[in-house]
Amino acid sequence: MNISRKEQRTLHVLALGGRIDFDRRPGGKITDVMCVTREGAILSDCDLDAFQRLRRKRLIESRGGAPYRISYRGRVSVRAQLNNQGG
Asked: How far apart are alpha carbons 71 and 61 in whole angstroms?
């Protein structure tokens, strides 16, 4: 599966205990996302486009309206990188 560098960084943060918080419109459509690391820092690489691609590939999931977390499929797909600085 082809995963872009932005998506890899986001998955890596999620694999280390991060989450993706989101805002919804009244109709239910997600309008804004924010990836938060386990320590509380915000990842700037995670935008709405990258979020939609990760969700479409089923690499992230949300249960019961909770923030999005990495799924089992995402954990298997993420490549090991030293400190998120692979290149």
From this structure: 6
